[in-house]
Prior knowledge:
alpha/beta, 7-stranded mixed β-sheet, 4-stranded antiparallel β-sheet, 13 strands, about 40% helix
Amino acid sequence: MTTLPLDPARIREQFPAFAEPSLQGQAFFENAGGSYTSRAVLDKLDHYYRATKVQPYGIYPASQAAGEAMDLSFERLAQALNVTADWIHFGPSSSANTYVLGNAFAGWLKPGDVVIVTNQDHEANTGAWRKLARMGAEIREWRVDPQTGRLSLADLDALLDSKVRLIAAPHCSNISGEINPIADIAARAKSVGAVTAIDGVSYAPHGLPDLQALGADIYFFSAYKVYGPHQGIMAIRPDLAAALPNQGHYFNDAKLRYRLTPAGPDHAQIAAASGIADYLETVAAIAGASVEGETPFRRAHAAMRQQEIALATPLLDYLRQKNAVRIIGPDDPATRAPTIALGLSEPGAAVASRLARHGIMAAGGHFYAYRLLEAVGIDPNHGVLRLSFVHYTTPEEIQQLIAALDVELP
């Protein structure tokens, strides 16, 4: 394996889970369903509940401290994403956030406007938009190649015209794993006067992106998959957020932060989310001069991706040799996230159950990408085996997984 930019021991010191006795010997390969939580986040969550679990933004000190802790998360996550704090919105989950957005767009679009969705997405970034057909929107589906699960920009171009108002697509699929060219998609959207809603849930754990470079109008992800609390985070271009119909209380119409989050998310978890940015800065410090980047967040992103590519290489090399295994998506670790779904003769869940005997924590199923599995010819009820990891996975765990697969795969 090539030299790792991140020392696994130093990285794992940042996660209390790795010192938990009940988890010793258990290799975690279900990170696409939710990562372990960093110490920086847990410490802030604990402090909030102990010291400032009051209504925030009041006139007494504990209340003021609570509000300041929440405001810090808006500022720090904006810094990590290279946007201003008025881009950031918290909600209970990414699925809840997209359904609120879908309802807002229903009041913003006009009958006959076109919405482009994909069949590569998790249902959270396709179901909500498809429901806009009820108000008269025309839904056009950008379909994957049935052999590779890939989205082609040429196929997107064939769907574009002046009626398109919204393109919803994933930064990468939670099944096929290929990293989609979001900057190119956003540029195409702008060329026809459309906006982009990008599902970053399966990409963000591998490094928060520079949203200015991507050019997306909406980018959302799940904090609990990015080493944080169980919440959904949306970054929305402020003028677009202001133009969408208010989804909150009418008297909060002028408050941008309240307009698209009608159900107030847990204050403590909002406050703890600034720990995500703290953790990413720690990653950059551990990487040191081994990677380049203008800010700690860009360096963390680069280091995490380099680490994951190095870890994924021997696993994909091994899987490529297994005739009975179908790798969904590309087998080049440089072009995909390390979320690797395998089509097998057995249901994915059955194989995952056997892998658990070897201390491998993985899962099988359709993972809410029902349409994608159908598109690539796999019965969603049969499902796939999904092996997903992040930068804190170790080379030893990769070898533990390969040894287990060697026993359990035909």
